[in-house]
Structure formats: C-alpha cells, structure tokens
Amino acid sequence: MEETNNDLEEREEEEEFGFSRNYFLAKELGGSGKKSTHKLSDIRLVDEQELRAAASNIEPKHEKEVVALMNSYKSLYSKWVFELRCGFGLLMYGFGSKKALIEDFASTALTEYSVVVINGYLQAISIKQVVIALAEVLWDQLKNKRATTSGNLPKAQQPFNSRSMEDLLAFLDGSKAEDKDCFICVVIHNIDGPALRDSETQQYLAQIATCSCIRIVASIDHVNAPLLWDKKMVHTQFNWCWYHVPTFAPYKVEGMFFPMILAHGSTTQSAKTAAIVLQSLTPNAQSVFRVLAEYQLSHPDEEGK
What strands lie across the sheet with 240-244, from one edge to the other? Predict the structure, then answer.
C-alpha cells in the first residue's frame, strides 16, 4: 500500500526528532565524562630553523609540467614589452611565486631599460628611499645621454636625499621634456606585501606610476589585493594590464621573511601571532584588550594578579 503525503511528512518529522534527540543525548553523555587535563602550554612547538629545514627538503612535484608552463609564458614577452612602451603597467597574479618569471622577463626582454627591483615581501621598505633611487638612476641616464649627444653635461642637481617627496616625483615626471626615450622599469615583487600595503605607500606608488619615465611590472598574491586601489588608481594611475600567470612555484624566498606562526620563535613571531588572534576577535573583545593594554602600559610596575 502506497504511503500518503501525510504519512511521509510524519516519518520525516520522526526522523528529524530522532536526530535532534540523539544529538543532545551525545552532548549529555560527553559532558558527564572526565575532562581532559591537557593544556595548550603542553604542546611542543617545533623550532623555526628545524621547521624551515624540513620544508626546504620537500621535493617539488610535476617539475616537467611547471617548466613547460613557464616556457609558455615566454611567448607573451614581446606583447608585455609593447604594452609597457604604450604606457601600461603589468600586474601578474595567480597561484605560485611569480618572482622567477618576472625576473626572467626583465633580464631577457627589458634590456633597453634600466630596471629597479623592489622586494615587497620584506618587512620594512622606505618608499622615499625607493623614489631617491629612481631619481638617481634617471639622473645618470640623462647625464650619459647628454654626454653622448651634445657633449654637454646637465646642470648640477640638489642632492636627492635632501629633497621632499613632491620634488622627487616632480623630477621623475619632468624629465619627459628632456628625453622621451629615457625609461626606468620598476619591478615590484608583491606590491601587496606587508611593507607596501598601507594607503599612503600605495598612493605614492600610484603617483610614481604616472611619471612619464616610469613603467611598472608588479605581482600580487593576496586574494584581497585589488582592494588596495580605487578606480582612479587602477585605470588612470597604474593603468594595469592584468595577467593570470599561475606558476605553482613555491614561495621559498618570500617565505623566508615571514615568521612561522606554528614554530617557537622570536618576539616578532609572538607579536605577529598575537595580532592574528586579536584580528579574529569581535570589536567588543578588541576594545576590552585595548583597555587592558593601555592600563598595563600606564602601570608597568604593577604585577598581574
């Protein structure tokens, strides 16, 4: 005899009730047992050097396929150079380190340019020192160009390290009247790196990208990296041409500069871990910890109770 709709609904309700009852029974039985005596402090953290050594011994997989993939990107080099000459910037994204790919492109296809490399994966970078370095490279180019064409050297300049950021950017952009063929290619590994991702630094990088003598080739790895820029920065200042170039290469070099959270390390690593934990808390909990921290800083001699 076939079941009616009412019979089916009643059976489904009984099954659902049975699942719920079993869930609470399991919780009740589990709570009645002995509590574990294990503590988080009992966990033995691996030494950071030991962990890095073990990670470096991991054998790469699919080497032939990865090499073939990297070689396939070489067919794009001429297109990338053309786009740079047209005033665009190149932004590489995709799974895996793009460091080797971009450096190969720079060393083989950008020989006409002076290339300045910025390692954005470093923990500390001075954006002003970057701009000073660019100005010095451009100044050397202008001097060499003048010496070979007219034999006259340009007038002496005020030392770049004593100039303001505005003056340095004006110098980089003002050189277009001097020589339209003087270009500097700025390679930025991880433009979304920890030392570059703040708003002020990104604004300066965007201004650098607008300078007539600058071309930028950069890579990103963080999934939220595009949120660093607004529409004007993307389309008008950086003027990105986006390229999906997954390499599946390990982040060996980049990873050397990041403290390992699961390893026993230095104060820097502990601070990094604490910051990650605090970011995961609710705003109210963060406020409580802020009050406690401020009190502790204002009463350094008091002992905890």
Answer: 114-119, 184-189, 214-219, 89-93, 240-244
